[in-house]
Specification:
Elements: H1 6-23, E1 32-36, E2 58-62, H2 65-77, H3 85-91, H4 98-105
Antiparallel strand pairs: 1-2
Helix pairs in contact: 1-4
């Protein structure tokens, strides 16, 4: 079950997201929200995920899903004192950033973003 082509799977996830965006007027009627708390190395589809080992980061929102995911990944990588190290170690061997690369290539969004903090 888990022995398939990893990059093809990651590309299929990006393409599925693009199909939803296209169906909903090229994303014109969508706002994407990521709640970056209780981040675990396991997928949120796992019924018994590993306990989180990093601090909560916050809530991010965008009309561009690729920019939003890139910002989230950048914030994980920016954590100090080893916070999120297990998550990074899970992402990298699985080529996890390839989903964002492919999503940008197929026109789902851009990996370029400006982070605006509304708390300040």
């Amino acid at each position: 079950m888990w022995s398939g082509d990893q990059d093809a799977f990651l590309e299929a996830m990006a393409e599925a997201g693009k199909s939803v965006s296209d169906y909903l007027g090229n994303g014109e009627r969508i706002v994407y929200i990521s709640v970056m708390n209780r981040l675990s190395v396991d997928c949120d589809c796992d019924g018994n995920p590993a306990e989180p080992d990093m601090h909560d980061i916050g809530i991010l929102a965008s009309t561009d899903p690729v920019a939003l995911d890139q910002a989230c990944i950048d914030l994980v990588y920016a954590q100090k004192d080893g916070d999120g190290a297990s998550l990074v170690q899970r992402i990298e061997p699985r080529n996890g950033l390839h989903t964002l690369e492919h999503a940008e290539e197929i026109g789902l969004g851009s990996r370029t973003y400006t982070l605006v903090n509304i708390d300040e």
